[in-house]
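Hello again,

I reread your note about wanting to compare the complex against the isolated chains. To keep things tidy I'm splitting this into two emails, and this first one only covers the full assembly. Below are the input lines as submitted, including protein chains and any nucleic acid or small-molecule components. They are followed by the predicted structure of everything together. The single-chain runs will come separately.
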Amino acid sequence: MSTSSTSVRATKLTLSLRKVAIVLAELDLPHEIEDVQFADVKKPDFLKINPNGRMPAIHDPNRDLTLWESGAIIEYLVEVYDKKQKLSFPAGSNEAYLAKQWLYYQVSGQGPYFGQVSTATTILSNARFSGAHIMPRLSFS
Ligand SMILES: N[C@@H](CCC(=O)N[C@@H](CS)C(=O)NCC(=O)O)C(=O)O
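Full-complex prediction:
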């Protein structure tokens, strides 16, 4: 079966994109990555793709399906394209539920915490360069 190229929209820097890109590469699925800037994800063009204004999002022309949320994207790619179970396990097996457990842990716990650290680090380092004081100062007399 020939597979048309899936388009992935996300800035190349984000961890959420890397997870999806790794799955696409491991499954040998042709794809192209459209480099979306952070500044653009809350604009109307991107909100038409993901009303939550976050990346990554994919469009799979083979099924005319647009999807967002990295966990949903990964589950979709694996269920539809990992027929030889290179990255997945038989549906209903204990291993399949354990894999799901780790996926949910990553998207609901580890991912957001790492995101907060990355955002805070960026804000703090920008503030240091600009000389701005973004942290409230306490003074005692
Ligand atoms: N739960 C979402 C999180 C997506 C997310 O937070 N993406 C970040 C980049 S890693 C983003 O689009 N940030 C832009 C913004 O929030 O304005 C997923 O796993 O896809």
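For quick reference: The chain has two domains: 1-87, 89-133.

B.
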